[in-house]
Structures are given as C-alpha cells and as structure tokens.
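**User:**
If convenient, please work through this fold.
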Amino acid sequence: MEKHTPDIENVEEKISGKNLEKLLVVLDEFKKEQRNISDFEIYIQDNNEDIKITFVPNFAPGEKILGGKTSLGRSITYTISKKTRKIISSNYHR
C-alpha cells in the first residue's frame, strides 16, 4: 500500500499528531477565557516530567504588547503532566 503524501507546496504549517494531542488537552480551557485561537502563536515545550504549551497573542495593527496582553488576548502557559495528561497549572504572563 502506497503512503499518501499531501501537496506540500500549499501547506502553511505542519503539526505532528503527538503535538495535536497535547494541544487538545488545553484547547477547551483556552477557549473558556480567550476569544479567537487564530489570533495566537502557540509554542510547545516538552520537558522531562511535563509539557508546557504557551499561547502568545498577535498584535493588532499599530499595537505594542503591554504586560503579556494585547487587544487580541492574554499570553498564557499551561503545564500538562506527562503521567496523567491533564493540566496541572496555568499562568498568565505579565
């Protein structure tokens, strides 16, 4: 059976299934307090015992960041336990 390879010329970004699973753990919690996920850049840091997922808001035109917040949202990091795959903490940035 031949493996399907997508037309990568039009692919903007790639995300692994493993990282998607990590994002799904925090997505519902993120949506409770933030407006629009498309207004954020997402960073994943895989440590020995936990995983940190940070959402950083983009800037609106002409805007500068003030204390981890823009008009599009607030910067937040969720920490996920590797053992339980549950959120163990969340911290807004200043």
